[in-house]
Design goal:
Helix content: 40-55%
Shape: globular
Largest sheet: 5 strands, antiparallel
Number of strands: 5
Mean pLDDT: 80
Number of helices: 9
Distance between the termini: 42 Å
Number of domains: 2
Low-confidence stretches: none
Structural class: alpha+beta
Length: 208
């Protein structure tokens, strides 16, 4: 369903098309519109207009554009983002198949909330590739720095505070497992490898 479909849909159809976080956001938007006088006071939700606004602003295509623009702007002022901008790309959120899910279940060692760099770096391997960069979601449209794993080029979200969905947009840089393990052994804590671009280089540079 897209923004253009909103006016033709019933409220129940919209509810069915949205996840729980999105429903909360749309209802809050509708209330704000009504409070500002953009909708009549006796309107139940101003639902169609609020939902259309939500879909037009937070659909995955817009998220991609906003994330790419954010990375480009930040690249001039923050060195790690410059690494992401120069060497990064959008990542696939395709569904893992049974074998890929089994690999993740067997080989991911840490899933601690709010410790994405630790979780991903300590489980990185030749099959579970370490990637860091940014992600955006409809419920959190401001790009967030993040780290995750990938198997066969597909995002594997292992941090409980950042549950993946197909409408989440990831943009990042892959690092070779040997580079990640060297960083873990050389540093007292886990943090973005891009903060030390001379010591830890993205995989595409290492293999060039």
């Amino acid at each position: 369903m897209t923004g253009n479909d909103i006016v033709e849909a019933s409220k129940q159809e919209l509810l069915d098309a949205l996840d729980a976080d999105s429903v909360v956001e749309v209802e809050a938007t509708a209330r704000r519109m009504r409070d500002r006088g953009e909708e009549p006071a006796d309107t139940e939700w101003g639902w169609d207009h609020a939902a259309e606004l939500y879909f037009n602003r937070f659909n995955p295509h817009n998220l991609r554009d906003e994330l790419e623009n954010y990375v480009e702007r930040r690249a001039d002022v923050y060195e790690p983002v410059a690494v992401y901008y120069e060497h990064g790309s959008f990542r696939s959120t395709d569904t893992l198949d049974a074998d890929e899910r089994a690999l993740v279940a067997e080989c991911v060692f840490n899933r601690e909330p709010n410790r994405c760099y630790y979780n991903a770096q300590t489980s990185a391997s030749s099959e579970l590739r370490y990637v860091e960069g940014y992600y955006s979601a409809p419920s959190r449209p401001i790009p967030m720095p993040h780290a995750w794993l990938e198997v066969n080029g597909k995002v594997v979200e292992i941090t409980p505070s950042a549950t993946p969905r197909h409408d989440v947009v990831y943009y990042g840089v892959e690092y070779d497992a040997k580079t990640v393990h060297r960083a873990i052994s050389n540093r007292e804590r886990t943090y973005p490898l891009a903060e030390q671009p001379d010591a830890y280089r993205p995989a595409e540079i290492e293999t060039a």
